[in-house]
Amino acid sequence: MLRWSVIFLVIAIIAALFGFTGIAAGAAGMAKILFFIFIVLFALALIGGAFLVKKK
């Protein structure tokens, strides 16, 4: 998911350089959403992993 976030960020930067502001805004929005979803899932995985380690 982090890979897709970076891909959309690169698309947004390239689109902004060429003046496609609508496409750049859309791609930047998607990159932001995917990045926050990645952060939430990463935090849940860390918390879940910590509980599994304590149980053993």
DSSP, total strands: 0
Uncertain spans: none
Class from helix and strand fractions: mainly alpha
Helix content: over 70%
Tell me the overall shape.
rod-shaped
Oligomeric nature of the chains? single chain
Give an account of the 3D structure.
By secondary structure, the chain is an all-alpha fold. It has one domain. Helices cover 91% and strands 0% of the residues. The protein has helices at 2-17, 21-55. α1 (2-17) packs antiparallel against α2. The protein is rod-shaped, with a radius of gyration of 16 Å.
How would you describe this structure in keywords?
56 residues, mainly alpha, 2 helices
Per-chain topology:
Layout: H1 2-17, H2 21-55
Please provide a brief summary of the model.
By secondary structure, the protein is mostly helical.
